[in-house]
Amino acid sequence: MHTIALRTNSNTTNSDSVSETSTNSDCTASTTCSNSNSVPAFLTKLWNLVEDPKYDDLICWSQGGTSFIIRNQDQFARKLLPKYYKHKNLASFIRQLNMYGFRKTSNLEHSGLKNESDEVEFYHQYFLRGQGVFLECIKRKVRYCLLNM
To answer: Which range is the signal sequence, renumbered to this chain (predicted)?
Structure first.
Protein backbone atom coordinates (compact mmCIF):
# COMPACT_ATOMS: atom_id res chain seq x y z
CA MET A 1 0.00 0.00 0.00
CA HIS A 2 1.12 3.56 -0.61
CA THR A 3 -0.12 6.97 0.39
CA ILE A 4 -1.07 9.77 -1.98
CA ALA A 5 -1.36 13.29 -0.58
CA LEU A 6 -4.54 15.01 -1.70
CA ARG A 7 -4.01 18.46 -3.15
CA THR A 8 -6.81 20.89 -3.79
CA ASN A 9 -6.84 23.90 -6.05
CA SER A 10 -6.60 27.02 -3.90
CA ASN A 11 -8.40 29.03 -6.61
CA THR A 12 -11.67 27.13 -6.10
CA THR A 13 -14.54 28.22 -3.93
CA ASN A 14 -15.60 26.24 -0.88
CA SER A 15 -18.34 24.55 -2.86
CA ASP A 16 -15.75 23.33 -5.37
CA SER A 17 -13.05 22.21 -2.92
CA VAL A 18 -12.60 18.52 -2.48
CA SER A 19 -12.46 18.64 1.30
CA GLU A 20 -15.83 20.41 1.42
CA THR A 21 -17.61 18.12 -1.04
CA SER A 22 -16.02 14.83 -0.09
CA THR A 23 -18.23 12.28 1.62
CA ASN A 24 -15.20 10.28 2.73
CA SER A 25 -13.74 11.78 5.90
CA ASP A 26 -10.37 10.10 5.18
CA CYS A 27 -10.02 12.19 2.02
CA THR A 28 -9.22 15.52 3.67
CA ALA A 29 -5.52 15.02 4.44
CA SER A 30 -4.26 11.94 2.66
CA THR A 31 -5.66 8.94 0.90
CA THR A 32 -4.39 5.38 0.90
CA CYS A 33 -4.93 3.38 -2.26
CA SER A 34 -4.20 -0.24 -2.93
CA ASN A 35 -0.94 -1.10 -4.63
CA SER A 36 -2.68 -2.32 -7.78
CA ASN A 37 -1.26 -0.01 -10.41
CA SER A 38 -3.87 -1.28 -12.82
CA VAL A 39 -6.52 1.31 -13.64
CA PRO A 40 -9.58 -0.21 -15.37
CA ALA A 41 -9.88 0.58 -19.08
CA PHE A 42 -13.27 2.23 -18.49
CA LEU A 43 -11.70 4.84 -16.18
CA THR A 44 -8.65 5.40 -18.39
CA LYS A 45 -10.87 6.01 -21.41
CA LEU A 46 -13.12 8.33 -19.41
CA TRP A 47 -10.12 10.31 -18.14
CA ASN A 48 -8.75 10.68 -21.67
CA LEU A 49 -12.13 11.86 -22.98
CA VAL A 50 -12.57 14.49 -20.28
CA GLU A 51 -8.95 15.66 -20.52
CA ASP A 52 -8.98 16.01 -24.33
CA PRO A 53 -9.93 19.61 -25.26
CA LYS A 54 -11.09 18.57 -28.72
CA TYR A 55 -14.15 16.96 -27.09
CA ASP A 56 -15.04 19.93 -24.84
CA ASP A 57 -18.23 20.52 -26.83
CA LEU A 58 -19.44 17.07 -25.70
CA ILE A 59 -17.65 16.27 -22.42
CA CYS A 60 -15.45 18.47 -20.22
CA TRP A 61 -14.40 19.27 -16.67
CA SER A 62 -16.61 21.48 -14.52
CA GLN A 63 -15.26 24.92 -13.73
CA GLY A 64 -13.80 23.78 -10.39
CA GLY A 65 -12.40 20.54 -11.82
CA THR A 66 -14.16 18.35 -9.25
CA SER A 67 -16.68 16.87 -11.69
CA PHE A 68 -17.24 16.42 -15.40
CA ILE A 69 -20.12 17.44 -17.64
CA ILE A 70 -21.62 15.65 -20.62
CA ARG A 71 -22.88 18.63 -22.62
CA ASN A 72 -24.94 17.02 -25.36
CA GLN A 73 -26.06 13.55 -24.35
CA ASP A 74 -27.32 12.47 -27.78
CA GLN A 75 -24.18 13.60 -29.64
CA PHE A 76 -21.97 12.12 -26.92
CA ALA A 77 -23.72 8.75 -27.26
CA ARG A 78 -23.62 8.77 -31.07
CA LYS A 79 -20.10 10.12 -31.63
CA LEU A 80 -17.87 9.29 -28.65
CA LEU A 81 -19.30 6.18 -27.00
CA PRO A 82 -18.85 3.95 -30.07
CA LYS A 83 -15.33 5.29 -30.60
CA TYR A 84 -14.16 4.60 -27.03
CA TYR A 85 -16.59 2.03 -25.59
CA LYS A 86 -17.85 0.11 -28.66
CA HIS A 87 -21.53 0.91 -28.00
CA LYS A 88 -23.95 3.84 -28.26
CA ASN A 89 -25.95 3.17 -25.12
CA LEU A 90 -25.76 6.16 -22.76
CA ALA A 91 -27.74 4.29 -20.09
CA SER A 92 -25.09 1.54 -20.04
CA PHE A 93 -22.35 4.16 -19.76
CA ILE A 94 -24.12 5.82 -16.82
CA ARG A 95 -24.67 2.42 -15.19
CA GLN A 96 -20.89 1.84 -15.43
CA LEU A 97 -20.26 5.26 -13.86
CA ASN A 98 -22.57 4.32 -10.98
CA MET A 99 -20.79 0.98 -10.53
CA TYR A 100 -17.54 2.90 -10.00
CA GLY A 101 -19.17 5.24 -7.47
CA PHE A 102 -19.79 8.29 -9.66
CA ARG A 103 -22.87 10.29 -8.72
CA LYS A 104 -24.94 12.68 -10.75
CA THR A 105 -24.82 16.18 -9.33
CA SER A 106 -27.61 18.71 -9.40
CA ASN A 107 -27.01 22.25 -10.58
CA LEU A 108 -28.57 24.84 -8.25
CA GLU A 109 -29.39 27.08 -11.23
CA HIS A 110 -31.61 24.33 -12.63
CA SER A 111 -33.12 23.15 -9.36
CA GLY A 112 -36.56 22.47 -10.83
CA LEU A 113 -38.03 19.00 -10.93
CA LYS A 114 -36.92 18.47 -14.53
CA ASN A 115 -33.66 19.74 -15.94
CA GLU A 116 -34.44 21.18 -19.37
CA SER A 117 -30.76 21.33 -20.28
CA ASP A 118 -29.15 18.47 -22.19
CA GLU A 119 -26.18 18.61 -19.81
CA VAL A 120 -25.56 16.08 -17.08
CA GLU A 121 -22.78 16.34 -14.49
CA PHE A 122 -21.05 13.52 -12.59
CA TYR A 123 -18.83 13.60 -9.51
CA HIS A 124 -16.43 11.16 -7.84
CA GLN A 125 -14.16 12.25 -5.00
CA TYR A 126 -11.10 10.77 -6.73
CA PHE A 127 -11.87 11.92 -10.29
CA LEU A 128 -10.22 15.34 -10.27
CA ARG A 129 -8.78 17.53 -13.00
CA GLY A 130 -4.99 17.31 -13.04
CA GLN A 131 -4.94 14.45 -10.51
CA GLY A 132 -4.85 11.34 -12.69
CA VAL A 133 -2.84 9.54 -10.03
CA PHE A 134 -6.09 9.15 -8.05
CA LEU A 135 -7.69 6.96 -10.73
CA GLU A 136 -6.22 3.91 -9.03
CA CYS A 137 -8.27 4.80 -5.93
CA ILE A 138 -11.54 4.37 -7.82
CA LYS A 139 -12.79 0.82 -7.34
CA ARG A 140 -15.73 -0.97 -8.88
CA LYS A 141 -18.44 -1.81 -6.40
CA VAL A 142 -18.67 -5.48 -5.46
CA ARG A 143 -22.03 -7.18 -5.31
CA TYR A 144 -22.54 -9.66 -2.53
CA CYS A 145 -24.95 -12.53 -2.87
CA LEU A 146 -26.27 -14.34 0.18
CA LEU A 147 -27.26 -17.92 -0.43
CA ASN A 148 -29.88 -19.63 1.71
CA MET A 149 -28.60 -23.07 2.55
So the answer is: none
How far is Cα 128 from Cα 8, in angstroms, rounded to an integer?
A: 9
Rounded CA gap, 103 and 87, in Å?
Answer: 21
Q: What is the pTM of this model?
A: 0.69
We report the CATH number of the domain holding residue 45 as 1.10.10.10
The count of domains in the chain is 1
Residue 147 placed within a domain: no
Chain segment 91-108, per-residue pLDDT in tens: 999 999 999 999 999 765
Residue 124 forms part of a structural domain: yes
Neighbours of 15 (CB within 10 A): 10
pLDDT tens digits for 19-46? 333 334 344 334 556 555 689 999 999 9
Q: For the chain, how big is the Rg over CA atoms in Å?
A: 16
Q: What is the dihedral of CA 142, 25, 126, 88, to 10 degrees?
A: 50
What is the extent of the structural domain holding 131?
Answer: 37-137
